[in-house]
Amino acid sequence: MLRLNSHPSGRHFLQIPGPTNVPDRVLRAMDYPTIDHRGPEFQQLGKKVLADIRKIFQTTQPVVIYPASGTGAWEAALVNTLSPGDKVLMYETGHFASLWKKMADKLGVHAEFIVGDWRHGVDAAAIGARLAEDRNHEIKAVCVVHNETSTGVTSDIAAVRRAIDAAGHPALLLVDTISSLGSVDYRHDEWGVDVTVSGSQKGLMLPPGISFNAVSAKAIAASAKARLPRAFWGWDEIIEANKNGFWPYTPATNLLYGLSEACDMLLEEGLQNVFARHRRHAEATRACVNAWGLEILCQNPSEYSPALTAVVMPEGHSADTFRKIVLEHFNMSLGQGLSKLSGKVFRIGHLGDFNDLTLMGTLAGVEMGFALAGVPHHAGGVLAAMDSLRAAASQPSLRAA
Ligand SMILES: *Cc1c(COP(=O)(O)O)cnc(C)c1O
């Protein structure tokens, strides 16, 4: 039975790929009176989070913070840079890339999709080839998802940048990092990204409710000419007010306390260590899935996501029935298959506030759930994950690779 009204003992295992578990330090940081958002105390907080978040995006350029879910930051990226009827080139990596495309269509932008099979990342060569054909430079932006959360596939953003440059094309590069920022190495400046979209509730370990646009000078120049209607999302007034640590309207003050703490945690651990930790947990998860004899949805090993793993259910078994059994017996939520993957895959989130033993608890819950649900598998996946973690632990060089 779902125990909605009683309190199951122990912590809920929220192992969906976002929202992720919010660490106690972040919860405590937000448990504080809301202050005057035009006063001196807020100004210090505003200046601190605006400086810290740039380090997380690996940028020295402005990062705009919205009181909105990631979807709002998607819209902000489009309406600030484009005009009605503009063409954009998008790549079908999965459910989230498809939703972003639908949004572009609704906003009156002509979004062209390079069709994908939901098992591979962005083919930078295909983007380069399409841009090379676009001799009149009608395509104004290339939009791609860094970590496709519906499939567990991570794309090579630096390769997309190189492809755009090799085609000699002036299109802006817009990237969704909603499920990778703070978990997967991401370099806004070094990779020449013009707008990076992100959200609070995945790698940043915060509750849902704030989202981001990291912007380049080229993106800001484009926004001066872009004619899609925008008011709330407009960068200019926000960036202006941010110079003094303020916002033009009431910001999500308590989420910003949390953001300050989450940035402290990530920077104390060291970003490269955070990324290595995620790679280690992803590798142990794949060792486990392989030992179970099940299939990983991502088909290209160089594109395996460090943040989550999507597992293909054996024919004739429903991923949703299995997930329900795991929730009822072990108080653990696993990610569902989205749109065309509904019922066919489940997703193990291994991102955010997460350590070796959280991973072992998660994988043990999955393996026990298989037995209860009668899902055919080989026992011993959990042991394989333990071996993988033990091997990594005894090689300190791997820990901070
Ligand atoms: C979660 C997610 C979104 C949607 O974000 P919301 O906060 O739910 O609006 C978009 N893109 C990716 C890659 C995501 O993981």
Q: Can you describe this structure in just a few lines?
A:
With 401 residues, this protein is α/β, with parallel strands linked by helices. It has helices at residues 24-30, 40-57, 70-81, 95-106, 124-133, 157-166, 217-225, 235-242, 253-269, 271-292, 319-330, 356-373, 381-393, 396-399; strands at residues 13-15, 63-66, 87-91, 110-114, 139-145, 147-148, 153-154, 172-176, 195-199, 211-215, 295-296, 308-312, 332-336, 345-349. The protein has 2 domains: 24-267, Type I PLP-dependent aspartate aminotransferase-like (Major domain) (Aspartate Aminotransferase, domain 2, 3-Layer(aba) Sandwich); 270-392, Aspartate Aminotransferase, domain 1.
The count of domains is: 2
* Percentage of residues in helical conformation: 40-55%
- Low-confidence regions: none
Inertia-based shape: globular
Backbone structural class? alpha/beta
Number of helices, where a helix is a run of at least 4 consecutive DSSP H or I residues: 14
Radius of gyration: 21 Å
Which sheet architecture does the biggest sheet show?
7 strands, mixed
Beta fraction: 5-15%
Kindly report the name of the CATH homologous superfamily of the largest domain. Answer: Type I PLP-dependent aspartate aminotransferase-like (Major domain)
Bound compounds, each kind once, are:
pyridoxal-5'-phosphate
H/E series, N to C? EHHEHEHEHEEEHEEEHHHHEEHEEHHH
**Strands across the major sheet, in which order?**
2-10-9-8-5-3-4
Overall pLDDT score:
96
So, CATH architecture of the largest domain?
A: 3-Layer(aba) Sandwich
Return the CATH topology of the largest domain. Aspartate Aminotransferase, domain 2
CATH class of the largest domain: Alpha Beta
Distance N to C terminus: 44 Å
Organism: Cupriavidus metallidurans (strain ATCC 43123 / DSM 2839 / NBRC 102507 / CH34) (Ralstonia metallidurans)
GO molecular function: alanine-glyoxylate transaminase activity; L-serine-glyoxylate transaminase activity; L-serine-pyruvate transaminase activity
Family: Belongs to the class-V pyridoxal-phosphate-dependent aminotransferase family.
Domain Aminotransferase class V: 14-322
